[in-house]
Amino acid sequence: MKVAEVKYIFVTGGVLSSLGKGITSSSIATLLQHSGFNVSILKIDPYINVDPGTMSPLEHGEVFVTSDGAETDLDIGHYERFLNKDFHKLNNFTTGQIYLSVIENERKGKYLGKTIQIVPHIVDEIKQRIHLAGQGSEFLVVELGGTVGDMEGMPYLEAMRQLKHELGAKRVISVHVTLIPLVKAVGELKTKPTQHSVQELRRIGISPQILVARCEKNLDTDLKKKLALSCDVDDDSVIVAKDSPSIYQCPLDFLREGILTPIARIFELGTLKPNMQEWDMLVKKIISPDESLTIGFVGKYLSLKESYKSLTEALIHAGANINARVNIKWIDSQSLEHDIQALKEVDSILIPGGFGERGIEGKLKAITYARENKIPLLGICLGMQLSIIEFARNVLGIKEANSTEFDKDTKEPVVYLIEDFIDTAGNKQLRTHTSPMGATMRLGEYECKVKKPSKLYEAYKSLSIKERHRHRYEANPRYKEALESAGLVVSGYSNGLIDAIELQDHPWFVCVQFHPEFTSRLKNPNPIILEFLKQTLAAKH
Predict the structure, then answer these.
(1) Predicted pLDDT of residue 306
(2) In angstroms, rounded to a whole number, what is the distance separating the alpha carbons of residues 144 and 22?
């Protein structure tokens, strides 16, 4: 598919952030995909960081890792889960990447001595990356992070304006997601903030053709007409987006609201009839399941639950598959250092990934509790490393067992820094404790060889699997023989590195170094997370 044939849908946000631009973009792309089109998505993040890899989860939320090793915005995770396909480095870029590229080009003399400016050089780089993301697709949905009026977003809005001018009105649609606040004192919805937001866009040279109105209750016909008139859109282009019981309900809600009607009209596509039957069935299982489970989620970034977005969504996917609602009991790992009562109120325990020493002792107590009381446990990344430390200390009697992440001078480094490894491109990487932080972890998709028989094999039904990684530290193979002789078996390997462990004398205690949540989809839940819930359900009954 030539670049010239790609149609573009730009999604911007107004009034305030966190209105659901990512879910709106995912929903539009899903409806087009289910109408038979090849769709791609791009997320633009206006912050200056090169990527979110070094940002605190409490600052930014989850860092989503693509199969090719890019550390990206969590919205890329939504895109993959909604469209059931992998996205890559090209599907997310930041202002930091744009400026870095332009400055590098200037140093190489590619601009022939010109003065480097926002227009044309920065804007041209933005347009080039948008075109690259759309190659091979019939539609590219582009989500711009932030809010209209933000200083950081101005070059991107200019790039969008120029693209519409260059490609023509039948190749570009602007969708504006905005808030219609409810003033509860008078019970009235107010449209003025939206009108001002659209006016700001129009001052820049962009006239949105579709309004997505986030509101607590339905807009009546008169209010819709008022919005359409004041914002210069067609009456059927004002789309109401109320809160849904599940984000996976949103494409169905948008379909009922008729969002495809203006899209089809502007792009001259004829009548679109997406096949959402299977999707609808899965959503019903999420909203009204027959069973119920309670998972003890022992985390350290609980003040911003989006730090674990892919994992909580993966639990929803697996729950829908077994017709069970997954109730997450959020347990701050630091609270367990003083009282483990919360662990007695759950059906199974999940130890997710993380970085740093804070909250580690509480996680270790949760692992001990699960091991001694035969409660199903799934450990992920740091969760696996801590399970090895806990076993070494309390079963093998190696009281000083530790990770060099927490004590770089430990005498018993059962978990240690990966000093050399093969990356996703097949190149050898060397690391030390003084290496830079950014993009220096083991990142992306790697093959894992699975031992048979094992609980890992029972979950995947394959001797070779591919999962995504994001970590600097690994289980030390020097302790493998001692661990296995005491009952902690290595069941997965990747290029000589330990990828999975499990307890022999336990109904279901499995830990993996990779992040299975990154490959989970609504239509295709991750096997190890699905097996974890199946074993939880079996233990409950």
Answers:
(1) 87
(2) 9
Q: Which of 381, 405, 445, 511 is flagged as catalytic?
A: 381
Quick check: is 215 catalytic? no
SS3 93: strand
Q: Which of 223, 254, 331 is nearest to 26 (CA)?
A: 254
- Catalytic: which of 390, 405, 515, 531? 515
| Closest among 161, 195, 164 to 178, alpha carbons compared | 195
Neighbours of 461 (CB within 10 A): 10
176 is catalytic: no
**Residue 118 has what DSSP assignment?**
I
Assess contact for 140 and 40: CB atoms under 8 A: yes
pLDDT value of residue 304: 82
Domain annotation for the chain: domains and CATH numbers: 3-281 (3.40.50.300), 289-540 (3.40.50.880)
Residue 1 pLDDT = 37
Known catalytic residue: 448?
no
Q: Place 439 in a pLDDT band, splitting at 50, 70 and 90.
A: low
Work out the pLDDT band at 187, boundaries 50, 70, 90: confident
Q: What is the mean predicted confidence (pLDDT) over 127-147?
A: 97
Spatial separation of the C-alpha atoms in residues 266 and 260, rounded to whole Å: 10
Q: Do residues 361 and 297 make contact, with C-beta atoms less than 8 angstroms apart?
A: no
